[in-house]
Amino acid sequence: MNISLPLEQMSIEEKLQVMETIWDDLSRRAESLAPPPWHGKVLEAIEAAVERGEESFDDWEVAKKRLRDTLE
Prior knowledge:
The protein has one domain. Helices cover about 60% and strands about 0% of the residues. It has helices spanning about 10-30, 35-50, 60-70.
């Protein structure tokens, strides 16, 4: 199927609405979507780095504050 959208004529809001519609549809079918093979490899590499003490995780609230502070 070849879908063509008039992207040049669409506003940012219209483009975001299209993206949200597609995301909502994909989210409803999430259980039938397999992650790509590279994703598992990346997760394994991160897990190994955490075990070696080279990576760590922040609490979500701490991470949001750090991002907000960086963007201000």
